[in-house]
Amino acid sequence: MRVSVRELADLRRAQMDAEELALHARLAQITLRRLLLAVEEAHGLARRRRAEATVDLRTGEITLASQSAPRPAVQEGDT
């Protein structure tokens, strides 16, 4: 099998392009995982504090905002 120098160069460029795409895919996967962890953390905080949580997708920063006034304690005799 004969391969010209030009064909070999094309194959090498294609391989480098594929490796670059794989690297970008891995970085995207890591970024998505970090965002998922931030959203899961925000959800847990919001549930515990009866608040609404938002996550800044650029920074991963979590902001909690109270949804409503705290519920009054149940008094004896309340149904």
Description of the structure:
It is built from one helix and two strands. With 79 residues, it is an alpha+beta fold. The protein has one domain. The N and C termini lie far apart (87 Å). The mean pLDDT is 83.
Structural category: alpha+beta
Tell me about the largest β-sheet: 2 strands, antiparallel
Oligomer: single chain
Mean pLDDT: 83
Order of helices and strands: HEE
Based on CA atoms alone, the radius of gyration comes out at 26 Å
Shape: rod-shaped
Tally of individual domains: 1
Major sheet: arrangement of strands: 1-2
Beta content comes to: 5-15%
- Using DSSP, what is the number of strands? 2
What is the helix fraction of residues, given as a range? 55-70%
Question: In a nutshell, what does this entry contain?
Answer:
The protein is an alpha+beta fold and 79 residues long.
Descriptive keywords:
79 residues; alpha+beta; two-stranded antiparallel sheet; 1 helix; 2 strands
What order do the helices and strands come in, and which of them pair?
Elements: H1 5-49, E1 51-55, E2 62-66
Antiparallel strand pairs: 1-2
